[in-house]
Amino acid sequence: MSLFYNLGILFYGLFIRVAALFNEKAKLFVAGRKNWEKKLGSAVDKNASYIWFHCASLGEFEQGRPVLEEIKKQYPQYKIILTFFSPSGYEIRKNYEGADIVAYLPMDTKKNAQEFISMVRPEKVFFVKYEFWYNYISGLKNQQIPLYIISAIFRENQQFFKSTPWGKWYRKMLHSFEHIFIQNDTSAQLLDKAGIKHYTVSGDTRFDRVAQIARGAKKFEIVEKFKGQNVTLIAGSTWKPDEELLAAFINNSSNVKFIIAPHEVAPANINRIQELLKKPAICFSKADISDIDSYDVLIIDSIGILSSLYQYGNIAYIGGGFGVGIHNILEAATFKLPILFGPNYLKFKEAVDLVNEKGAFPVQNFTELEATLSKLLNDNNNLKTASEICKKYVEKNVGSTTLIINKVFNKK
Q1: What is the per-residue DSSP string for 119-150?
Q2: Are the CB atoms for 121 and 139 separated by under 8 Å?
Q3: Active site: which residues (predicted)?
């Protein structure tokens, strides 16, 4: 099976090189790995001890970040090397100060894996959520370097749990991990069935990350004045279908303020949103504190501040649910905001949990959006109850980072 796997990696490498001629992301993927041996060799301190973190992309980085930063804090004798598979992670975090080296993960060939491991000589390795690269995993196992996966989540339809030859081959990879830290009991049941016992249900480190973000939230005096004493709905990471629903509600609302932070902040998209609105609206970049309270809608036309803005909200609407899937809802939940989103949320455990607990509310259309918001806005008890549900949900799930570090470093 390893022969077929390695052939697959080879063909993928050829495909991505061809794609790089036409696709910018593929071009970054290829260019970032060019001469990786030379670049990594000059960056590695041969006298240092390294801990290696690997993430597929930006989302996994944010998930693994609390563990990385806590290790950096508690064990400063180690240097950190951080690798990414995807350009969308590397290009955004290539200057991340929490790591001593940030690099692309070389393609998973046997030769690359052996050279990479020999250069870095990591003492411990952490893969985040679902990265399973056979040659790296085998190389670490052969050199007796402990490999952990954190915030992993398994589903029954994954190859690991099939009785096919491929399934059995993939399942062997799980035995090569020193320990597997998983998010939920469903994953535990699947691992048990597969004969995998070296796991701990530690939860999701994203809860630690959003709690960390909340503690360091930036203050915005202009947003505080915009809100005043009004109930405020914050719509985060919205797309066109979300914005059209929200605009219909906003245009017929009263005594409510709205903050819209669209996923796409290009001027053409901001203009499109403004054209949907009949209420007085102003862009964040053009807002003036002297008259900001005269507007009903504040449109965020910049990036990087949404997670801090949730502190000013009473209700959140998270976009993406009418597309491939909802965006991060935990940043809103950690500020105890009841959450609305579109119908495509079932792949996200925290969304399913909060829907079941009545802290989050999926909507299929404008009628459902209007009905749900009316219940929350017109009855303070409903709003308060849903807020407390979200607050308690986040609080009970914080602590995964501490559990992982205690286990890995044998702390009691």
Answers
A1: HH-EEEEEEESS---HHHHHHHHHTT--EEEE
A2: no
A3: 60
Tell me if 130 sits within 8 A of 150, measured CB to CB.
Answer: no
Q: Is the entire prediction scored with pTM above 0.90?
A: no
Q: Which of 60, 243, 331, 350 is catalytic?
A: 60
pLDDT value of residue 13: 86
Q: How far apart are CA 90 and CA 104, in angstroms?
A: 7
Structural contact between residues 263 and 238, judged by C-beta atoms closer than 8 angstroms: yes
* Structural element, H or E, at residue 5: helix 2-19
Assigned architecture for domain 219-397: 3-Layer(aba) Sandwich (3.40)
Please tell us whether the domain made up of 2-212+400-408 is placed in CATH 3.40.50.11720. Answer: yes
**Nearest-angstrom CA–CA distance, 150 and 157:** 20
3-state helix, strand, coil in the chain (%, to 5): 50, 15, 35
CATH 3.40.50.2000 domain position(s) in the chain? 219-397
Q: Tell which residue, 370, 359, 371, 304, has the closest CA to residue 335.
A: 359
- Report the chain's mean pLDDT, rounded to a whole number: 94
- Tokens representing residue 225 in the block: 């004045």
pLDDT higher than 80, residue 411 = no
Which pLDDT tens digit goes with each residue over 89-123? 999 899 999 999 999 999 999 999 999 999 999 99
Type of residue found at 24: E
Specify the DSSP class assigned to residue 292: G
Provide the angle, in degrees to the nearest 10, between the axes of the packed helices 349-357 and 380-397. Answer: 140
334 pLDDT higher than 70: yes
Q: Say which residue the tokens 């910049």 belong to.
A: 302
Answer for the pair 359, 386: CB distance below 8 angstroms, yes or no: yes
178/150 Cα distance (integer angstroms): 11
Identify whether the C-beta of residue 276 lies closer than 8 Å to the C-beta of residue 243.
Answer: yes
Q: What is the DSSP letter of 396?
A: H
Told to judge if 70 belongs to the known catalytic residues of this protein, a careful annotator would answer: no
Contact status, residue 228 vs residue 293, Cβ threshold 8 Å: yes
Q: pLDDT value at position 412? A: 57
